[in-house]
Design goal:
Layout (H helix, E strand, L loop, with lengths): L2 H11 L4 E5 L4 E4 L1 H7 L3 H4 L10 H17 L3 E7 L7 E11 L5 E9 L3 H18 L3 E6 L4 E4 L1 H7 L29 H14 L3 E8 L5 E12 L5 E10 L1 H12 L1
Antiparallel strand pairs: 1-2, 1-5, 3-4, 4-5, 6-7, 6-10, 8-9, 9-10
Length: about 260
C-alpha cells in the first residue's frame, strides 16, 4: 500500500475533522467528519483553501502560524474555531504534519481535536500523533517535554526488535530519564548524541545528529536523526517529534571513496 493511500485511509477513518492539503493550502481530500461539520461534500470542498473552514476572527493567526511551520518544516499546532453549518463554531486543537510523497509532492495532514480540558486534550493529541507517525513511511518517534523517549512507530519498533507489547509501541510513559535511549546507539556515538540532545532540550530548539543505531540483529546502521519541538500555544515544547533517516549506504560509499 502506498504512503498516500495509508494517509488517506487514516484521514477517512478519523472521528475528528481531518483533511489533506497542498503546501498552498488547497484541500485534496476531506473526511466525513469535516463534511458533517461544514455540511459540504468532498467535491464541493476539493481545492478550497482550508483556512476558509476557520472562523474569520481566527483565520489570520492560524494562517500565520501555519506559514511559520511551512518555512521551518515543523509540525503545526494551534487552537481555532471551525465554522459549523448550524452557525455554532467548533473549538478545536488543530494539528498538522507535512509529508513528502515519493514523487516529491508535499501534502499536509490536518486534524481538529476537540478542546475539552487539558488531560483529555493531550490524550487525544497523543493518539493522533501515534496514528500519524505510524502511517509515515520513515523511522519516527516522539519524546515528552522532558526529553524521555515515549513512543516509536511500528517501523522503528520492528527495526529495534521491540516486543509487540513494549511500552514504547503504545506511548506509555514509564518514568525513564531524558537520555535513556542512548544505549541503543553505537558506543562511539553516545557521547556526542547525548551532548546534542542536551543542547536541544536546554534551548528548546530543533536539532540534528548522525549516529549508528543497533538493529534487532545486533547490526549498527548509520542514521541522521532530526528532531523538532511540537509547541503549545504559548511556545512551550509539549513533545519532541523525531525522524531517523537511514544513510548507511551513503556512509559506506563515502568510506570506500576515502580509502581508494
Amino acid at each position: 500500500m502506498s504512503g498516500v493511500t495509508k494517509i488517506v485511509g487514516f484521514v477517512e477513518t478519523s472521528p475528528f475533522p481531518a483533511w489533506l492539503a497542498t503546501g498552498r493550502g488547497e484541500c485534496v481530500y476531506v473526511n466525513p467528519a469535516l463534511e458533517r461539520l461544514t455540511d459540504l461534500k468532498s467535491d464541493q470542498i476539493k481545492q478550497v483553501d482550508w483556512r476558509s473552514f476557520v472562523l474569520e476572527e481566527d483565520r489570520a493567526a492560524a494562517s500565520a502560524s501555519w506559514q511559520r511551520s511551512l518555512a521551518s518544516t515543523t509540525p503545526f499546532r494551534t487552537t481555532v474555531r471551525l465554522r459549523g453549518s448550524d452557525g455554532v463554531p467548533a473549538t478545536v486543537e488543530l494539528i498538522a504534519f507535512g509529508h513528502t510523497l515519493d514523487d516529491g509532492t508535499e501534502l499536509w495532514l490536518f486534524a481538529g481535536l476537540p478542546a475539552q480540558g487539558t488531560t483529555q486534550q493531550y490524550s487525544r493529541l497523543e493518539a493522533q500523533l501515534q496514528a500519524t507517525l505510524n502511517v509515515i513511511p520513515a523511522y519516527t518517534w516522539y519524546a515528552v517535554a522532558s526529553g524521555a523517549l515515549t513512543f516509536v512507530n511500528n517501523r522503528t519498533g520492528d527495526y529495534l526488535g521491540l516486543p509487540k507489547d513494549h511500552p514504547l509501541r503504545f506511548g506509555i510513559e514509564t518514568g525513564t530519564e531524558w537520555d535513556a535511549h542512548i544505549p541503543l546507539l553505537h558506543p562511539d556515538d553516545q557521547e556526542e548524541a547525548r551532548r546534542v540532545w542536551s543542547v536541544c532540550l536546554g534551548a528548546g530548539s530543533a536539532g540534528e545528529n548522525s549516529q549508528r543505531i543497533r538493529s534487532a540483529k545486533g547490526v549498527y546502521r548509520w542514521f541522521i536523526s532530526r528532531v523538532e519541538p511540537l509547541r503549545a500555544s504559548d511556545g512551550t515544547p509539549l513533545y519532541w517529534i523525531g525522524v531517523n533517516l537511514d544513510i548507511d549506504d551513503r556512509k559506506r560509499a563515502e568510506e570506500i571513496a576515502r580509502q581508494s
